[in-house]
Amino acid sequence: MDRVICYQKPGPGRLDLVTEGGFVRDNFLNLDNTANINLVYENYLKGSTVILSGLEETWEPLVVFCRKLEGQLSHPVAVAVYLTPPNHHGVQPHFDTQENFILQVDGVKHWKVYGAGQELPRVEGSYTPVARERLPELLLETELHPGDMLYVPRGFVHEAEARDSASLHITVDVHVRTWRDFLEDALAAMADRNPRFRKSLPPGLLNGSHAKAQLEEGFRELMEMVHREVRLSDALGKHAEKLIVARPPLPDGHFALLHAEIGLDTPLRKRTAMLTRRFQEEAVAGIQFSGNQILGPVKIAEALRHIDETEIVVPSQLPGGLSNNEKLVLVRRLVRVGLLTHASEGNSAGAAKRG
């Protein structure tokens, strides 16, 4: 905890202090908005829980863990670490908008889980405190010891208290994507393709019957168009762009590989914790992966499948009827854009394939 606070210098949102009465604001910060470690110590000794968030982006073991979990779940994953002083509550009773997996690392913490404060809250929402007089029915009361895990679904109210020693736990937050998100992605893709969806609404649409009639006609036409033309593949592609392409690959000294010689017998592999999604539409084949994507003619589809599913990739062994020159062009491009590295770089592929 000390090293992260001192060396990474997290500000508000990445470092928070909280008591049963709510969040502690500002009195642990330097003038440049970074944390003053001595003031953090002082607040902790007074009963504040120290929360470090965003470690899925800054601490490599957790980055790899979260990427691999994202590869299995196909939903974004984040991590927060909670350090609570002895015999103190962490956060006041509340519910979250994400799925929570609590992993107890050190000390013992007493947990209470109540019924839902809100059924399936919007994922875009935030932590919502619940007054004690309004707590739902108590469903579970338990103690977590090091190595224990507790799952708290989104919307369910919960609270926790450290026992006679300090408690350290990791919360793995799964920020699930919902059907609403999926449908929004499908409509956004349609609007990208069809300018009809990008037309302005009629002027005065809130003021008169003429504009209302135009709205009704236009709305009906667009809904019919959606029914005819909406594509599942569009929603999947948009989801992959957010989950996979928008996340950079892990730093692994890739600069050195950009000038390396790659021949037909050079062993290659996917870079560590690399998320991937292959797709094929009409005459186009492609692969999306952490930080980038490529498109090409459909004849590369079989080679991309082999690259995606094989731990060690040898260019000469690529299937699909490509010439030796085409095989080299493809793998060299995949090294250049960040999917592949030399198999000798690191101990294992560590790839996290998206299902």
TrEMBL record:
Keywords: Iron, Metal-binding. Signal peptide: none annotated. Residues 26-191 form the JmjC domain. One of its GO terms (molecular function) is histone H3K36 demethylase activity. InterPro entries: JmjC_dom, NO66-like. Its cofactor is Fe(2+). This is Chromosome 14 open reading frame 169, putative. It comes from Stigmatella aurantiaca (strain DW4/3-1).
